[in-house]
User: Which sequence fits this backbone?
């Protein structure tokens, strides 16, 4: 069973139906009591960093999520959900991330850049991971974001170029984050979701 954190502004239902279409048991949760025994958790997100962080705090999910991760539950952060795995973001100094990855997200800058970065782009894999199994070393995925996680040699398993090279896949122990939307990335995204469901 995969538990999908369903904040009001997230794309949780799209992720939910993507898993269901593959025959994967999952449910959307919005309450801390529902994740005490979770083995696999997905944190999707669209919109603002502060809004999602506030939802996790208001729903009393923030600390239970950190605890479940520390206890070994597998975690997949999607888009904004990946950014919440960081310590924080330039988008919101008031709210903190979960602090799984010790870095801060930054805003795309540059007069020639269209922000948000939206549409199909390439992901270059530089380290193999179970969730990336079966994908080519350079694959396409669908993005939509205005902030990015800087490249970190300790946890950046995949990168993308958009004015600057940024982390599009993060991994550390039992936690993985993808900056793109696998639920909108056709066969490549489906493979990532399937790999996460099979990850032991």
Assistant:
């Amino acid at each position: 069973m995969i538990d999908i954190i369903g904040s009001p502004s997230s794309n949780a239902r799209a992720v939910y139906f993507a898993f269901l279409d593959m025959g994967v048991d999952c449910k959307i949760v919005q309450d801390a009591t529902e994740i005490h025994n979770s083995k696999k958790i997905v944190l999707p997100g669209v919109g603002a960093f502060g809004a999602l962080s506030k939802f996790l705090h208001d729903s009393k999910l923030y600390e239970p999520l950190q605890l479940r991760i520390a206890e070994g539950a597998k975690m997949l952060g999607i888009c904004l959900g990946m950014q919440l795995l960081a310590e924080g973001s330039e988008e919101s100094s008031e709210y903190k991330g979960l602090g799984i990855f010790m870095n801060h997200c930054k805003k795309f800058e540059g007069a020639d850049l269209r922000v948000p970065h939206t549409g199909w782009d390439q992901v270059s894999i530089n380290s193999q991971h179970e969730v990336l199994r079966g994908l080519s070393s350079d694959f396409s995925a669908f993005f939509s974001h205005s902030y990015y996680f800087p490249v970190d040699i300790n946890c950046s398993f995949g990168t993308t170029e958009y004015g600057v090279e940024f982390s599009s896949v993060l991994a550390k122990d039992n936690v993985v984050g993808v900056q793109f939307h696998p639920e909108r990335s056709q066969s490549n995204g489906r493979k990532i979701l399937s790999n996460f469901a099979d990850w032991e």
Notes: The chain has one domain: 2-198. The mean pLDDT is 96.
